[in-house]
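For the sake of transparency, this paper describes our internal protein records without simplification. Because each token names a local backbone shape, the row as a whole describes the fold. One such record is reproduced below, unchanged from the form in which we store it:
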Amino acid sequence: MLLMKHKWKIILCLICVLFATCALAACTYEFDPSDTGYTVTVIYDANGGRFGSSDGNEQREFRYKPAVTIIEPGGTQNNQVGSPVYSSRHVMGWYAAVLGDDLKPLRNQEDEYVDENGASIFEGEAWNFAEDKLPDEDGYTLYLVARWAMNYKLTVDVGEEARAAGLKNVEYTTYTEPGPLTRPYLESRDNYSWAGHTLFSCITSDGREIVTSEDWATLEFSDDNPEITVTVRWLEGEWDIIQTTSELSSMKSSGNYILATDIDMLGRSFSLTNFRGVLDGNGNTISNFKNTGNAVLSDATEWGAFSFMMGGYIKNVTFKNCTYSLTLSKALTGEDSYYAVGFIAGNGSSISNLEDFTNIGFENCTLDITKQGRAAQETILTGSGSYAGIFGELAEGQSFTPLEGSTVNINIKVG
């Protein structure tokens, strides 16, 4: 009986040893992903950045099955790759390195990742995580390298007075690549709404005025120039900003208008009739318009491309290659009657604020007058001295001087 008890103890001990051995074997077993089909290795190289904290790893390695799409670091998928970080930079894309026989990426003497021909891998196409798939090849290794770019920032400074009125500077951080700037949507932000003022342009640090999309494209982000600041130029009052031919043609008889760029009328007519607003050319040019007038059925004796009332005026503009063409065929009645014809207006004496007509120039402009029929013998005044061809006549004490070098050609013919 005692012997039987010892046998059972020995058996129990052997069973315990067997379980312990199995447990130990289980603890030392290493799982091999290839056993379940995960035979492709993908290495994510942060290329100077780090996954996780500043003391994190520069690389992460994952296993995938062949012929599948892979996880994008920092993408929207739930994944464990994570997003690498690099101070003041962002990832522009991930690029496949070319591996040598030692399964290490090829690099040149400057330690840049290159292909078999020595060209930078970043000159190729970035890996498309939504569409590109791994090769259908067991044992394949894909080595992806992060391409970094600086964080670019455009700051629009609204100016000291505007900030005092409650506006705030605006920062645009949506630019993701180096190169020319696209025009930000300035007018769409509440920060740019200032009662009694109009946002006209922005001024660069070197004093250049930025108005049009073409102007904005002259500013470029680069790794050496990742931040750009421009300052708003405000206009006092409410202004309509003109940038196109159609906008100029659509001007109304009142309101404040300012040119943002040169305007080519492409042979169309352009006139202001009984204009009581302000047209500020802002130093720009209006070119290639041709206006025609015909006095056959009118008793009017004062003719010009423009007419003004209630203090309306134009300033800071040059007319280039423009023509005002007029045909006169009506005989005048009354003693000492005459026609007064000018490129701007026939009779400047009706303009009480002629002093507001400043910085107006003329390049290759023509006043073209034809007298026919009963008007063939009529007298036509086309101005004299500095205002010849610009105003038909001025009142005593009035004067007008265009920009230096300005002339208006005067052609009068009968026929």
